[in-house]
Amino acid sequence: MSTILDPAIASQLKRDADGLVAAIAQQHDTGEVLMLAWMNDEALALTLATGQATYWSRSRGQLWRKGETSSNTQRVLSVRLDCDGDALLLSVEQSGPACHTGNDSCFDAAQFLPATVRGDNA
Amino acid sequence: MSTILDPAIASQLKRDADGLVAAIAQQHDTGEVLMLAWMNDEALALTLATGQATYWSRSRGQLWRKGETSSNTQRVLSVRLDCDGDALLLSVEQSGPACHTGNDSCFDAAQFLPATVRGDNA
């Protein structure tokens, strides 16, 4: 299994000071945004080689195959790169909840509404 | 117009070393992920006060109201926070293309397919 990223892909990435790019996981059929995580070159290489989303855990400082302990894996259908090369969008098929809290999406911690939506400015 | 973020919101954010959180913009009706940008407290406060997406430009080192030069604004319907407080998901109504390249989404620079999808492992 290749852990070396294809140089043709690597050359397109604009990594941060820690060698990482942001990676957004989106459920392929519903369009739900599940989570934001991070990838280094090896994580992206493993993701593309295995078809299973693999990230770099900034808190643990190690590679992390999504679902390796929870079994809530992400099968990856495609990876798209953004215009400035520092973010990826993964189209995935999520097994079970994406979030360690048990929620389908990690974006369920809080919701803030603009004043225009709340009607404060009406 | 308030540029001070509500302390009840500010206390929930886990900012990076530069005081920023990631912000994903998603078109509210199609589910298309448009772009990934960054917000400091003031950008989020302005976004919530005006209902217009305002980011922090890391390259220019200044606040940046989306569309202020291009007129391709983003009306914000809601802002959701993720489980560890370092990423936001904006539900937006995008006017015109989101990307400075003229594409609807910034995630149109390149697409990479896993070996499992390409059929290399079939």
Helix and strand composition category of chain A: alpha+beta
Strand order of the largest sheet of chain A: 2-1-6-5
Biggest interface pair, residues each? A-B, 48 and 48 residues
Calculate the mean pLDDT score of chain A and round it.
95
Verbal overview:
The structure is a homodimer of 122-residue chains. By secondary structure, chain A is an alpha+beta fold. In chain A, 15% of the residues lie in helices and 34% in strands. The first copy, chain A, has helices spanning 7-10, 41-50, 115-118; strands at residues 21-27, 33-39, 54-57, 62-65, 74-81, 87-94, 110-112. In chain A, the strands form 2 sheets. A 4-stranded mixed β-sheet of chain A has the order 2-1-6-5, with helices on one face. In chain A, strand 3 and strand 4 (62-65) form a beta hairpin. The mean pLDDT of chain A is 95.
Break the fold down into its secondary structure elements and pairings.
Two copies of one chain form a homodimer.
Chain A: H1 7-10, E1 21-27, E2 33-39, H2 41-50, E3 54-57, E4 62-65, E5 74-81, E6 87-94, E7 110-112, H3 115-118
Parallel strand pairs in A: 1-6
Antiparallel strand pairs in A: 1-2, 3-4, 5-6
Quick structural gist:
2 copies of one chain form a homodimer. Chain A is of the alpha+beta class. Helices cover 15% and strands 34% of the residues of chain A.
